[in-house]
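Hi Prof. W.,

I finally got the Multidrug effflux MFS transporter prediction working! I wasn't sure whether to trim anything, so I left the full sequence exactly as given:
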Amino acid sequence: MNKNRRLLTIIILGLLSAIGPFSIDMYLPGFPAIALDLHTTVDMVSYSLASFFVGICVGQLISGPLLDRFGRKVPLITGLTLYILSSIGCALAGSIEMLIVLRFVQALGGCVSMVAPRAIVRDVFPVEENAKIFSLLILILGVSPILAPTVGSYVIATLGWHYVFAVLGLVTAAILLAVILYLPESKQPDPTFSLRPKPILGSFATVLKDPQFYTYASAGGIASAGLFAYLSGSPFVFMKLFGVTEQQYGWIFAVIAAGLITSSQLNSVLLSRFSSEQIMKTVLILQSLVGVTLFAGTAFGVLELYSTIFLIFLFLSCQGFSFPNSAALSMAPFTKEAGSASALMGAIQMGLGALAAASVGALNAQSAMPMTGVMAVCALLGLVILIFGRRNIRYAGRPLDVQEEAIDLVEKC
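And this is what came out:
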């Protein structure tokens, strides 16, 4: 692969990786406008976010086998086409029920753009360069949550919320064209790869039986669900309760997202002195304390805008430490079933995230308490699962270098 083709491939993979974060974050500033236009409440609009998470959860379990069976480009082209069509549907949605359903379909189509780039990197580039390429993709993923709400807020203020989905559809159409014309097929279809439920479910069952996997995947997944509660509840809290504008909300979101990104980079520094287990336990304790403080401050009415932002900043900064370590520890026992473990871990995270997001909407208390309460509960449950789950983990006979290798891989990626 020559230098120009290599650069173009990296750019296309980066753009594909950004579709998911932009789909989640770009329309958040439009929650009040969507609620007003569709004659519903902001809490009901939050269900469209929860349905998107459910779609990603289901889609991750489907996309992996399809990419192995049919090659990389055919599932990618099919998924992006479905994403574009459903984005047009979201822009034209005349009811909240239609928007909720179409967001689920949009997630099913867009999910392949989250799974395929990592597979293509492993196919196309030399092993010794994978970490460098993954770092570039992660940089794009890190910047996306900062840019998406800010861009979305200006689109909504200028053109209206419908155009957020129109923009997502148009941009994805351009990416789809680039995929068709310039992205190489990195893996030929494999007719011998079985798509029957029995072998796929058998691989998943093997992973789920491992105490180390279900302990760290559950603890990390429930703790990270606090992030999804924030995503679901923050438009109402900041724009309705605190009265900030769409543009101001976009900047608040960017500042908080920057904390999560910074902490994830600091995590690699701490790993030179502490183990993943030590970091995980300490961070969940800290996140629980911050979560309880945030909820108590909300319940007693002592928090104002800036103190709320500060506590949420601290809460989500903890997430930047807990996720990479819980991911590494979850996958450490596996070699042959690493793909199934990765898919299950993502599905667990998104499934719990969808539940947290839906819970915020279901509580419908017209205050910040549903959001902050769910955030606090998520952190506390994650800590409890970690403490009791570690008793079931048996490290005897499990090579330490496998665990260290998995941790190193996650940190590089």
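Confidence is low (pLDDT under 50) at residues 395-413. Does that look reasonable to you?

Thanks,
D.
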